[in-house]
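Internal ticket - ligand job 150, zinc ion:
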Amino acid sequence: MDDLSDLYQDIILGHNKRPHHYGELNPHTHEAEGYNPLCGDRLCIQVREKDGSLEAAGFTGEGCAISKASASIMTDAVKGLDREGVAKKIGEVLELLTGREEPVVDLMEQGDIAALAGVRKFPPRVKCATLAWHTLAAALSEEPRSVSTE
Ligand code: ZN
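stdout (structure tokens):
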């Protein structure tokens, strides 16, 4: 299993070094800010929804390697999904990170999301990994933090 842990760690570090979709997303239809006071991670997640699907997702902010890698992985994972698909994906990741059962992960099937399972071994860092996903859920909810460019 150690080889797998190394692989997961490489995936996380790779995303941290070269985050995908880092930067302001213009135009965007929804955004939210997320803050993890335990670690000091601050993320702003922006998405563009078109015809019921997420056309693009991006993020800005500062945080630890795990929070940034998780946001980067998220922007890849939710692209092209409809609301139902996004909700399912968020649920899948939160279960992976915080579920009571040790998750069965499949790198081929889940892609880089599988690497997030490695964070379970470091309980204080789990909130770093869940931050982007909670923030995405907030962005898509009907709360005042959601803004529209229309
Ligand atoms: Zn963190």
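Auto-summary: The chain has a mean pLDDT of 91. The chain has one domain: 3-142.
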